[in-house]
Amino acid sequence: xxxxxxxxxxxxxxxxxxxxxxxxxxxxxxxxxxxxxxxxxxxxxxxxxxxxxxxxxxxxxxxxxxxxxxxxxxxxxxxxxxxxxxxxxxxxxxxxxxxxxxxxxxxxxxxxxxxxxxxxxxxxxxxxxxxxxxxxxxxxxxxxxxxxxxxxxxxxxxxxxxxxxxx
Length: 167
Hints:
Structural class: alpha/beta
Distance between the termini: 41 Å
């Protein structure tokens, strides 16, 4: 009887799964539209009163995205004021949507990975994730890996798409 041989394991191919770097901490979106006068105007005195009286501790250890979902024009200092109030409690604070926050968290995770072990290796970046991995994260990872690896592919070992091969 023939023995089953795992050719992928013998190939030296290393699979890099971005899902392993997904930040599972709670994400919260703070929408400034709730604090506009008649849904259009930011009144500084009222807004500062909200920032001063709000219970920012409720965002302890959360990742925060601050933005506005209406077409009202809000000055940059308003986002900064909320950020300065929530920052002592939050893990991360960004100006933007939850998608922007997700991009930031992945970017932060990639910057903290020691990729030196992938030097001159055959690397495949796993596709088809179950978690929301932004396309920009794949591009950022490609930029980080290309100077290091011997080959870079995307997908699964059985159906990979070649991206880069060191000459």
